[in-house]
Amino acid sequence: xxxxxxGLLAIALFIGGSVVVWLHxxxxxxAVAKPATPSPKITAEEAQILYEQARSMLDNQAVSNVSPxxxxxxxxxxxxxxxxxxxxxxxxxxxxxxxxxxxxxAAEWADxxxxxxxxxxxxxxxxxxxxxxxxxxxSRASLKNAFARMKQAAHMGLPKARAELARYxxxxxxxxxxxxxxxxxxxxxxxxxxxxxxxxxxAGYMYMKGMGIYGGPDYRTALFLYRKGRLWQDSRAINNxxxxxxxxxxxTPDPDQALKYYREASRLGCREASTNVQRMAYRxxxxxxxxxxxxxxxxxxxxxxxxxxxxxxxxxxxxxxRRMAVQS
Length: 328
Prior knowledge:
328 residues, mainly alpha, 4 domains, 16 helices, flat
């Protein structure tokens, strides 16, 4: 009899333990499967206030810690704030103080903004930047994706996207080479949007190299286009204009005029022009007589003057060099 009782108790304990384990396991599964509660969206008014705070932190030189800015701008972007969306991309590209570039996040947000932005121009700008991120990967698949994104941005009416689309067609980036189509796009832009960045640089380059041009290079037209680019402060067009004067391409060689244009392009931020200024300055202007310290100081001054520096930094560097240049 007692054996039956013990057997029944053992069976009861086994069943009870299984039920407890089953219930406990079900609770754990439910806890894992339960989705995280999304943070509530902020209102348009709150987004505007948050955007102004983030912008103030970036613009105020007295504020050194700007690490909260990206998250602040992300909230604004999710709320549909247009200016915050574009500023967020600038921040993740490393264009603002105190924040290192994170192109992976920049690409993620550009893709999201391109798909969700209510403003067509904002969506086109995000698509344009997304194409540039894809192009930087330089793989065959990414270049095709870059071309598709740039084409979409161009179709959305962004002039600079059309200029870059022409460059893709000019060199066969992510698509087949089609220089004639590229030149047609650039000509159309020149009539409707002459202020488009790189427009006259690309067009002038095509005529200088004879790409899509019947009869080969056309230096005369290239010079005309580079001069047009100079009117719109296209630094790369001005640099190429200087190069044509230096080499005598379509004009009589004129090193002095070339140096003048190189310096102009350098002041507008063209790094290649800065290098060209230094090269020509050393070649054209011999170092005056004097002690070795004076010669070094004067040579250093000619290099510094060619660099695109801020007025404060330029004065800080040039002041001791000037003093050294006149001391015996």
